[in-house]
Design a protein that fits this description.
The protein is mainly alpha-helical and about 160 residues long. The chain has six helices and two strands, in the order ααββαααα. Helices cover about 50% and strands about 5% of the residues.
């Protein structure tokens, strides 16, 4: 979400639309979508083809897992078992520590979702990406902040 905008703003990488909430609309443009502005990486021209390919890939991976692939559910474990091949560091061997790590992972996921909600709201209010908003705030912190009248009254009647 931040990486393309940082590359475009500070590293000079030419990316057609570096802001995360506008980037997906490029698939509907004339030339299609180029990942990180490079047609050699991914050059997508059809949303239907992307959706079909994604469903086939994810469906195949899930079918393989459910039907006994190497990452299938081990005997005597719950359906969301994170151990075995998915635990190369052996963090799930100590049951007490493992319970704490599961709680920490859930809390970190909730924190990440809250941060993304902040990105969404910021994009709706300002119409700019998080890196551009941050740079604007650093340039003029007393006038460009969450309490500034220009942003707080943008959607009021």
């Amino acid at each position: 979400c931040l990486f393309p905008e940082i590359l475009s703003k500070y590293a000079g990488v030419p990316i057609a639309e570096p802001v995360w909430f506008k980037a997906g609309s490029q698939i509907f443009s004339e030339g299609g979508l180029d990942y990180l502005g490079n047609p050699n990486l991914v050059h997508a021209q059809s949303i239907v083809a992307i959706l079909t390919f994604q469903v086939i890939l994810m469906g195949t991976a899930e079918a393989y897992r459910v039907n006994g692939g190497p990452l299938a559910k081990p005997e005597g474990s719950d359906a969301i078992y994170p151990g075995g091949p998915l635990d190369p560091l052996g963090l799930a061997k100590d049951e007490g520590k493992f319970s704490d790590l599961k709680v920490k992972e859930i809390k970190n996921g909730r924190l990440a979702m809250t941060a993304m909600l902040g990105f969404y709201i910021q994009a709706l209010v300002t119409g700019k990406g998080p890196v551009e908003n941050w740079a604007s705030h650093l340039a003029d912190p007393s006038n460009v902040n969450g309490f500034a009248q220009a942003y707080a009254t943008k959607f009021s009647v």
